[in-house]
Amino acid sequence: MSEISEEKIRSVRNDFPILSRTIYGKPLVYFDNAATTQKPNVVIDAISNYYRNDNANVHRGVHYLSQQATGAFENVRKKVSTFVNAGSSDEIIFTRGATEAINLVACSYCETFLNAGDEIIVSVLEHHSNIVPWQVACERKSAHLKVIPVTPDGDLDLEAFGKLLNDRTKIVAISHISNALGTINDVAEIVKMAHNIGVPVFVDGAQGLSHGPVDVQKLGCDFYAFSAHKMYGPMGIGGLFGKSSWLEKMQPYQLGGEMIDRVTFEKTTYNEIPYKFEAGTPNVADVMGLGAAIDYLNELGWDFITAQEIDLLEYATAQLQAIEGIKIIGMAAHKAAIISFLIDGIHFFDAGTIMDHLGVAVRTGSHCTQPLMNNLGINGTLRASMAFYNTRQEVDKLIDAIQRVKTLFA
What we know:
CATH architecture of the largest domain: 3-Layer(aba) Sandwich
Radius of gyration: 22 Å
CATH class of the largest domain: Alpha Beta
Distance between the termini: 33 Å
Helix content: 40-55%
Low-confidence stretches: none
CATH superfamily of the largest domain: Type I PLP-dependent aspartate aminotransferase-like (Major domain)
Number of helices: 15
Number of domains: 2
CATH topology of the largest domain: Aspartate Aminotransferase, domain 2
């Protein structure tokens, strides 16, 4: 039983205005947090405040508003650096999200270091965003994509991974947490194995920063990508941690203003990191929102967040397992609060549509992990992904909705 008081949960839920909505006349039960998390008032207010009071381009003006905006913008970079324990704020690059961060490394790193006959390793668990950019890089360079298999429970097969590593491996790209199964990968061990033969590791942390503290130095990874909207911040902003030793050697991903040092028609030289990778006018307002989201998470504290999510995961898993005809897909030993499941004889899309009309929002489909679904021999699942603002009472409503679906199809 959760030891977190109902008063605390009510207080937290009041921070999120959308949670008071009704859907089809029913109170909203939002279990699609792996797709995007909802936003607290402080994040919404931070974005509005920037446009109302501080709107100006950054790094480019001597006037007051520009200086004000630049200082606030760089302060958020420092917040991100501290949040993930980077070695320096210079190792934090702002991007549109995890997808752009993956593409940045896949293009810039591979352009510099990948050659014909080389190999890149990904895993069966990956989101399409952490497959396709590496796949295309291999096609461009006549390199080869290798894949870490997954066990029946949804864990990566690290013994098989060890056999894939060799002197042709140029980079390993793996997710911190599977968005489809909730599996928490042993990133530190994967990094250790790869570093033993001098291979860098890229981590897709899109799900990582919302479920627990991330220390990139402790993990040892060379790159870590994230999206703000998965961690209670706005859409359209995210970032990349990259070790300066790699970033200094990589070519820019995009070209234009801000990322230059000096331009002549004969030659252009590039700015220092991180600005070398931040061409054009940045999304300043949403960077402010990201900063507010980090402040909010820090104020809540990871002890509360992880305790609440573990309780919800254990409770929901037990409740689902008690229903005849429910099959949970992915039972890894270490999981985030994400549960994929199927209902015998009922298509996941039909079930999800009915549940929506009962006010329960879950995800249906392949979750942008078609290779994983193919590997599991299924087309997709229902996915309930939980956040710290969800409650056991909402899990009960999920269970009631499933029972209603089963009754309708009986």
